[in-house]
């Protein structure tokens, strides 16, 4: 039986701990926050039901996530409703690809050598006639994959866009937090302590053990340690490794970590159904060219809630305040619904802004693939001295990057590696 410490009680850390405990190991989780779940976090506050400030959807058929939901006996609800698109203050009809988009996908399909999205657009779509297309492509990429266009891999975007399944977006019944609770119980009910309020500052690799220094100044000792903190935390160097791991630090920097600011708005009635302004009946998603461009409802759940999504490099501006962001979201929604400023505020019951970029234990939302991500992940997939392992959403290599599925697959992989190392 090995003594193992997992750093981070997000879905990957909890899943790893649960599996290792089931295999008979002694596992302790050290978590910086006063709660588990990491980037899965529902709040209630003055909302009439819990709202997800982090992960919310199951994007299509995600096998590991769906299997875990089944084990936890949590149903999933297909999001049903209409997709709207608003550009230059006009509602666009249908989702037919125009000729420029078709040309874009054709060029992308023929691309052999990887380049950044900016480079790709400059090479094939430089002309004035493509100005609008360039803007829309970047907006599209930022909306889903949240990358910096100057760094993101065009080949990886191509893979992801090919595999995306917009028609099959599900909500776990009751939210992802139910899954977190299932995993948390699977850890603590089987003797795995979860130490909260324990931000880890240093990991010391010794000849025969690992020492982990958390804020409490207590030194935790283990045979192995698995670091599952977000890539943003690793990029910042918030955890010191001794001896230093310069190649690993370079690998963290080589990968991309994007930002998201999420808005949860609850209304007295579904303002988007009103005939006094732009009428968006049965709204599932509205995509627009507003500053906060993407908004979605909770259909088939009819609670009058809208969620706003603001993402990409713009979110890294250091001086955002909640009040300023709220005003930006309000004016974006006024534009989307083409209504007067009071129409939204007078029917708003409650709102909340979550800025993941300013979150000290995330420093962003999720990873995106750069030209050097594959090479970096290969290095990070190798255990250091058979004692130090990295896992979590950013360590996953596949077409479901930046998701709960990515975190769960990475958890399975590290558990297998540890199993093999102990045989
Ligand atoms: C706004 C937003 C929306 C998203 N939407 C979706 C979605 O709809 N569908 C989907 O599939 N995915 C979505 N994701 C991505 C998904 O949330 C993540 O991929 C997944 O939750 C990551 O899990 P993880 O365990 O790898 O990391 P985390 O959940 O971040 O867990 C890591 C843990 O490490 C802790 N930690 C950090 N620093 C330290 C330290 N020094 N010491 C100890 N502990 C530390 C953190 O507090 C955290 O609890 C979204 C993410 C965000 C931010």
Give structural notes:
With 423 residues, the chain is an alpha/beta fold. Among the domains are: 3-43 and 55-59 and 65-75 and 173-256 and 372-421, FAD/NAD(P)-binding domain (3-Layer(bba) Sandwich), CATH 3.50.50.60; 99-163. 33% of the residues lie in helices and 23% in strands. The chain has 13 helices and 23 strands. The protein has helices at 11-22, 63-71, 99-110, 117-124, 131-144, 154-163, 177-188, 231-236, 246-254, 322-337, 341-347, 373-380, 404-421; strands spanning 3-7, 26-30, 42-43, 51-52, 58-59, 76-78, 82-87, 90-92, 169-172, 194-195, 200-205, 210-214, 219-222, 224-227, 240-242, 256-258, 260-267, 283-288, 294-296, 305-311, 348-355, 366-368, 388-390. A seven-stranded mixed beta sheet has the order 8-7-18-19-20-17-21. A five-stranded parallel beta sheet has the order 10-2-1-14-23, covered by helices on one side. The protein has a four-stranded mixed beta sheet with strand order 13-12-11-15, with no helix packed on it. Strand 18 and strand 19 (294-296) form a beta hairpin. Helix 9 (246-254) runs antiparallel to helix 12 (373-380). The protein is globular, with a radius of gyration of 22 Å. The model has no long low-confidence stretch (mean pLDDT 94). It binds flavin-adenine dinucleotide (FAD). Flavin-adenine dinucleotide binds at residues 7-13, 30-33, 38-40, 54-57, 59, 199-200, 228-230, 233, 238-239, 260, 262, 356, 361-362, 365-366, 392-393, 402-407.
């Amino acid at each position: 039986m090995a003594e193992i410490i997992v750093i981070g009680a997000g879905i990957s850390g909890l899943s790893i701990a649960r599996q290792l405990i089931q295999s008979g190991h002694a596992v302790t989780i050290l978590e910086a926050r006063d709660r588990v779940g990491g980037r899965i976090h529902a709040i209630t506050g003055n909302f009439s039901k819990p709202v997800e400030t982090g992960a919310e959807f199951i994007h299509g058929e995600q096998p590991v996530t769906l299997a875990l939901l089944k084990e936890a006996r949590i149903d999933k609800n297909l999001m049903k409703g209409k997709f709207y698109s608003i550009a230059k203050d006009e509602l666009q009809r249908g989702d037919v690809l125009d000729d420029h988009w078709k040309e874009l996908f054709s060029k992308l399909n023929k691309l052999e050598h990887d380049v950044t999205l900016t480079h790709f657009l400059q090479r094939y779509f430089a002309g004035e006639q493509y100005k609008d297309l360039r803007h829309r492509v970047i907006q599209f990429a930022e909306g889903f994959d949240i990358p910096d266009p100057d760094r993101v891999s065009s080949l990886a975007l191509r893979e992801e866009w090919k595999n995306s399944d917009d028609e099959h977006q599900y909500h776990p019944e009751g939210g992802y937090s139910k899954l977190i609770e299932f995993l948390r119980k699977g850890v603590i009910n089987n003797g795995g302590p979860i130490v909260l309020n324990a931000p880890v500052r240093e990991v010391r690799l010794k000849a025969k053990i690992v020492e982990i220094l958390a804020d409490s100044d207590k030194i935790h000792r283990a045979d192995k340690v698995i670091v599952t903190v977000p890539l943003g935390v690793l990029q910042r160097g918030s955890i010191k490794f001794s001896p230093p791991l310069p190649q690993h630090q370079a690998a963290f920097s080589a990968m991309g970590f994007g930002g998201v600011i999420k808005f949860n708005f609850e209304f007295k009635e579904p303002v988007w159904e009103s005939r006094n302004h732009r009428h968006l009946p049965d709204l599932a998603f509205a995509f627009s060219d507003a500053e906060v461009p993407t908004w979605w409802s909770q259909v088939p759940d009819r609670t009058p809630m809208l969620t706003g999504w603001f993402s990409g490099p713009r979110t890294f501006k250091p001086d955002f305040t909640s009040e300023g962001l709220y005003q930006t979201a309000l004016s974006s929604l006024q534009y989307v619904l083409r209504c007067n400023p009071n129409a939204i505020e007078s029917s708003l019951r409650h709102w909340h802004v979550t800025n993941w970029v300013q979150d000290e234990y995330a420093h962003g939302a999720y990873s995106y693939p750069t030209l050097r991500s594959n090479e970096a992940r290969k290095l990070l997939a190798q255990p250091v001295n058979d004692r130090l392992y990295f896992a979590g959403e950013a360590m996953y290599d596949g077409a479901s990057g930046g998701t709960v599925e990515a975190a769960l697959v990475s958890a399975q992989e590290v558990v297998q590696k540890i199993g093999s190392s102990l045989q």
